[in-house]
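Teaching assistant here, posting this on the class forum so everyone can see the example we discussed in section. The complex has two components, and the goal was to see what a joint structure prediction looks like when all of them are supplied at once.
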Amino acid sequence: MDMITIPAVNFTPILPEIFLSVLAMVLLLINVFIPGDRKAYLGYLSFVGIVAAGVLVAAGWGGHIESFSGSVVLDNFATFFKMIFLVSAGLAVLISDQYMEREGCNHGELYPLILFTVVGMMLMASGTDLMTIFLGLEVMSVALYVLAGFNRKNPKSNEAGLKYFLLGCFSTGFLLYGMALTYGATGTTRIAKIAAVVGQMSLPSANIMLVAGMLLMLTGFAFKIAAAPFHMWTPDVYEGAPTPMTAFMSAGPKAAGFAAALRIFLVALPTLQVEWSQVLWVLAVLTMTVGNITALRQDNIKRMLAYSSIAHAGYALVGFTAGNGTGTAGILFYMLSYAFMNIGAFAIIILVGKKGESNGNVQDFAGFGVKHPVLAVAMSIFLFSLAGMPPTAGFIGKFYLFSGAIQQGYIWLAIIGVLNSAASVYYYLRVMVFMYMKDPTEEFDWMQVTAPMALCVAISVIGSLIPGIIPSLILQFAQQAIKLI
Amino acid sequence: METLFFLIVSLVAIISAILVVTCRNPINSALSLILTFFCLATYYVMLDAPFLAAVQVMVYAGAIMVLIVFTIMLLNIRVNASKSQSHKIVLGSVIGFFTLLNTAVIVFKSRVALPNGPLTGDIIKQQGHTELIGREMFTTFLLPFEITSILLLVAIVGAVILAKKKI
């Protein structure tokens, strides 16, 4: 037996992951000593930790370091996505405490679980090995199943957790089967090596095992990003899960799914782009249309935003179908701005809502504009941004996604996208009609707007407006991020 | 001889797998599942992977199945005569059958030359299967191995939160 040589290990690429994991474990320990009415301190601590992790992540900008014999990489692509995850987690932490306190489920384990979800998402974005990506996805998913069912006394939350768990396991099976077949066809799980092996094949599209593996992986990721026809779980899970977790789930994990899928398909399988872009074309059209048309007739606002989040995944898939610089940079830009506008909208929904998940219908927003003009303006900005109106971030994001498609010759895809976007204006504006033009049906007793909540709304407003007014601020980073892959 | 053995094991695996989903009594389903796992372990032995076979028997056919059987007994699940949704079953069977047929045709028509990895059967026999797995796990796949510990921690914390009576 010869000596085993341990490969050189550089911890720099996974420094934020290590930091957040340790922080999560420390919080789990601290949680034991903190009485039930002071759990908010854990939230403050984890917010500080997330900001610190953001500094760590930002410090890695511009570098390119591979480590753990090619299991993980630090590059601009990973750094940009890690920032998106931290933004969504930070905002979700800010809006959690008030809601959890009201619903009577402010268990301290919430914050460590959010941090673990971020660790999983980060590993998905920076993983350059199918194993790393898969395990990152599992860490993220397992934590999310628990977060969806976190409100243990609420049957709807239980249903959300169980449904997400069962369907999530099922979809993970697809993903893993696809990875196994890809491994069988190429003999490696390293993304760079897969690209090399596939590049040497004379006709990769005739390799049935590789194509089957690709399609199964696509199915697995389509489930995670809630693309139609794999979206059936989304409305029930988003409606049943605690609202802050719904906000988090629709922003962070969706971006993580895109990060891993982009890396696998653009780096490992660019030779099969003709094949996978055809499938993505259909997925994008279906996802946008199904999401928007079903959202039109929703009264529950959480359910409406769930369907709208399906539609937004569809817009991002338009950029993915194009697969060129503009389209993929558009995805990165869009995912970041979507995190701001979506979590902002959910923060307002939490403020309007009452104990026991009631007051969550569009009608309950009647008179909101008169009673709370500042919050109503914020909500209007979020809704305008979701609808994609200038000068908000949502408009610029959609602009780049669709122009990426046009550059690649997908004219019809862009037309369908724009039509869908126009249809979506209806249900976003409907909320605003209720806010400004209807009188309140009943007297509401407003809950206090806590400082973290106000901070979250303020950050979200800035995040939904600034990239729309000065797009180059974010876009130049997004363009640098996709250069390396 | 090996082909014959493979066919017999496959037949048993398929029949027991069908029994898992068709048995009305959950205990029978669980026992059929054990049989399926044993058949899978046999495949691993045939593929010169004795370590995986042992793990398959110990973890899946042993530990996990004991857990499942215990859970079934503790919950005392009754055989419920649920309303048969025959039209859904028929529709599902038709779609499933044609998908299977389609896949079978494509697989039989295409001959894919699979790459040979560096670890041939001779090397595995010479160095030992278990040693090679251990070596890979702690060198090439060191990071994924470590992530597994985080995954298990998250699962434990999650199980406690969802299931413990008072937290």
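For the discussion questions: Chain A touches chain B through 47 residues (CB under 8 Å). Chain A has a mean pLDDT of 90. Think about how each of these relates to the inputs above.
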